[in-house]
Write a structure and sequence with these properties.
Mean pLDDT: 95
CATH architecture: 3-Layer(aba) Sandwich
Helix content: 25-40%
Strand order of the largest sheet: 1-6-5-2-4-3
Radius of gyration: 15 Å
CATH topology: Leucine Aminopeptidase, subunit E, domain 1
Bound molecules: adenosine-5-diphosphoribose
Number of domains: 1
CATH class: Alpha Beta
Shape: globular
Oligomer: single chain
Order of helices and strands: EEHHEEHEHEH
Structural class: alpha/beta
Length: about 180
């Protein structure tokens, strides 16, 4: 199940098709499912994922946090359901909450012995977070996490279209 990934991989694709140890869902506070990444994960993963969130996290998940379930029919061990912020104007703690959603997901992956994880661009769809700052936060959070943690966790960002991929490539070049 573990993929041999370079430290940060940027690919265009569909998060549901990844074979990393964990994939990350762009979920909502109620863990109630929805469209975008969330809809695709529940559609391909089957009903057991929702059953598990309802059983283990009936109270949902706070914005900026994440919870973990198994992955149903998906080719991964775990789904980490991360709740990013809804963008309003950037002055409502959106950067801190987005950073926290990524960081909590990374911590959950390492505490479950994952060696590889795939993320979508959390909050950049229905939640309206501007892509450029969201890409910087995603990449910097991972790089900071790696500095502070010895865990051998490789990361892949799975970006849905070429425009999002290019934005992440530019942001990565500026980070490193
Ligand atoms: N694989 C990878 N990326 C995808 C996929 C997919 N299958 N589908 C959509 N995306 C991209 C979008 O283009 C966007 O860049 O993922 C990013 C996040 O978009 P959303 O899924 O809309 O997530 P988000 O912005 O965090 O909004 C969360 O949407 O459906 C709901 O229940 C979900 O209420 C929550 C909200």
């Amino acid at each position: 199940m573990t993929s041999q990934l370079t430290p940060i991989q940027l690919v265009q694709g569909d998060i549901t098709q990844q074979t990393t140890d964990a994939i990350v869902n762009a979920a909502n506070c109620r863990l109630s499912g929805g469209g975008g990444v969330d809809g695709a994960i529940h559609r391909f993963g089957g009903p057991t994922i929702k059953q598990e969130t309802q059983r283990h996290y009936p109270q949902g998940c706070q914005t900026g946090s994440a919870v973990i379930t198994t992955a149903g029919h998906l080719s991964t061990k775990y789904v980490i359901h991360a709740v990013g912020p809804i963008w309003t104007d950037g002055y409502h703690c959106e950067p801190e909450l987005l950073r926290s959603a990524y960081r909590t997901s990374l911590v959950l992956a390492t505490t479950h012995d994952c060696q590889s994880i795939a993320f979508p661009a959390i909050s950049t769809g229905a939640y309206g977070y501007p892509l450029q700052p969201a890409a910087h936060i995603a990449l910097e959070t991972y790089l900071n996490f790696k500095i502070r943690n010895d865990a051998p966790l490789s990361i892949r960002f799975v970006l849905y279209n070429i425009g999002i991929l290019k934005t992440f490539e530019t942001a990565l070049a500026q980070c490193t």
